[in-house]
Amino acid sequence: MMMARRQQTERYGHETEARAWWRAKRYGYGADLPIAWQGWAVMLAYVALMGGLALLFVPDRLLLFAAAALAATAVFVIIVARKTRGGWRWRWGEEV
Predict the structure, then answer these.
(1) Structure pTM?
(2) By the 8 A CB rule, do 34 and 22 touch?
(3) Distance between CA atoms of residues 87 and 46, nearest Å
(4) Would you give the distance in Å from CA 43 to the centre of its chain?
(5) Rounded to the nearest 10 degrees, how much is the dihedral formed by the CA atoms of 37, 41, 46, 47?
(6) Distances (CA, A) of 78 to 66, 75, 91, 92
(7) Residue 8 scores a pLDDT above 50
(8) Which of 15, 19, 64, 95 counts the highest number of beta carbons within 10 A?
């Protein structure tokens, strides 16, 4: 039973209560604020990285900034999606 659940978690990327870093939004699609220190650390690192990229590339190299920001955002979204309790799906206010 435990092995089947672990395989399902690895296959679909939905996290269990104990390993989740974000909770799912009550309404809509996506994640809410972090619920674990790891989630806060990832979010802080993302914000710091975006600030650093802006200081480094703007206004001289906007295209390079846009490419780096897009890549960083894609990695951040993938991490959040995989570490959200219950995964990302549309919710209508049911218990999360």
Answers:
(1) 0.77
(2) yes
(3) 20
(4) 8
(5) 90
(6) 18, 5, 19, 23
(7) no
(8) 15
Tally of structural domains, the chain: 1
Four-point Cα dihedral 28, 32, 35, 39, nearest 10: 120
Q: CA-CA distances (angstroms) from residue 8 to 13, 14, 16? A: 8, 8, 11
- Cα-Cα-Cα-Cα dihedral sign, residues 34, 27, 14, 77: negative
In whole angstroms, what is the distance from residue 13 CA to residue 24 CA? 13
Q: Could you say which DSSP state residue 15 is in? A: B
Does 96 score more than 80 pLDDT? Answer: no
The total of other beta-carbon atoms located within 10 Å of residue 79's CB is 17
Question: Which residue range(s) make up the domain with 23?
Answer: 2-92
Tens-digit pLDDT profile for residues 29-79 = 999 999 999 999 999 999 999 999 999 998 899 999 999 999 999 999 999
